[in-house]
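Hi R.,

Here's the chain you asked about this morning:
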Amino acid sequence: MLPTVASLTAEVEAEFAALIDAEYPRFSPGEMARRRQRFDDLCAAEGLDAIIVAHAQKVGTTTFWLTGWPTTADAVTLLVPGRPMKLWVQHVNHQPLAAKLADTCDVEWGGKSGLGHALAALAADKPGQKRIGLVGTLSASQHASLSAAGVVVDLNAAYSKMRYVKSAEEMPWFRFAAAMSDLGAASLAERAKPGMTEKELGALVEAPYVKLGGTNALHYIGTTPMADPSVGVPRQFPSSRRLKVGDALVCEISAQFWDHSGQVLRTFAVGAEPNALYRELHACADAVFDAVTAKVRAGATPAELVAASHGIEDAGFTIIDDLVHGYGGGYFPPVLGCASRPSATMPDMKLEAGMMLVVQPNITTRDRRAGVQTGHLLLVTETGFEPMQRFPRGFHVIG
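And here is the predicted structure, written out as tokens:
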């Protein structure tokens, strides 16, 4: 039996009361100092005078991870070893809350240019040409200004590696986000009815977790008749198509708690049992999920995970979406495909305990017209994995 929204909400509220009830949840001073030290160590390793973190329009995780302020509009952080961090934010009305949340920084309004303020402060502290590390993205004109101040070193890959293995303090935040993602799936399963548009289905997903402090990272939804399918993977933008009896409903749901999110992927049959094709697709997806996750453990290689997915081709199917990807603070390696839809590269790495992966076999017909989605977020352990999601797997009939 699928969990109800009411029962799952009660479970989540009891388990994560400390995060829900906090005025603003915080990481400990020790955790924030550890993150700052990682950046100071990076300065030393790369021979840098400073690091600038630049994000805008709610894109990027570094500003929050390093300072406690989630980027809204422009946010530019200046880190000089041995000095307090400085953060400039846009707009001026964002500065009071930014100063409250990023309480390990000097926080100011960025005025015309937060980057301009950061470069002026750096020039006053360290005149002349410098080696400056950059995490984030800049416009062409901003990059020209930064380049004029010295040699620019791209640190985006180095920052990503810092996030592969999660700290102990991060895990409750990720577990809470994963549970809220499950609430979205439960709401869709319980409340979706024929006649609803894909847009209305999205509203069902968000409703139960917004009141707990969650926000939408994504909810991708696709609906199509099982008898005459034309959608092989959840859509990134909802259509006005109305749900009908006999449809397959495929979804990918990620609720977010500050910059931490879960991910659950499921397929539902609407008001009717799955037909033969969809039963075969989902059976393949289940088998591949089990085969791939059986290989997940500290020390496993990406090649082992891909090799375990041969059941896709054995059944005459393929995939559209990635088979596996790293997750939790970004979209990380290993990003893997399968033999019939290989990934761009095969990363030279081994899994480590504390990494998080999404295993998500999106099994489709070769023409990509019919497809199912199953899988979810999991935590890599020394001997295997721990599921982060609690919404049951399976091809459930709803509506």
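One quick note: Residues 170-398 form a domain with the Creatine Amidinohydrolase fold (CATH 3.90.230.10).

Cheers,
M.
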